[in-house]
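Prompt: I keep going back and forth on a fold encoding question. Comparing notes only helps if you start from a blank page. Show me how you would write down a chain together with its backbone fold. Please set it down just below, with no commentary around it:
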Amino acid sequence: MGIQTATHSSGAVRNITPNDSTDLPLGVCRAIRVGGAGDLSVVDLTGETVVIPSVLAGETLPVEATRINATGTTATLITALF
C-alpha cells in the first residue's frame, strides 16, 4: 500500500517498535533502516517470517515488509521507510 511518490524514494518514515501481532502503521514499507546492529525478523509480502541475521548498525535494507516482529529481532533503532 504505502504512500505513493513520483520516484522510488520514501514518502514517509516511521520509527518502529517491533511487535509480533501488529503490522506496520502505513502498510508495506519500501525499506528498513537499522540504527543498532542485530538480527531483524520481518514478515514479507507472502506472509513468511524471515530472520535477517547480522544487520549492521546504520544499514538500510531494500526489503518490503508488512511487520517487524519482536521475537527474533535483536536490532534496535528501527525505522521503516514508506
Summary: The beta strands are 13-16, 31-36, 38-43, 49-55, 60-61, 67-69, 76-81. Residues 21-81 form one domain.
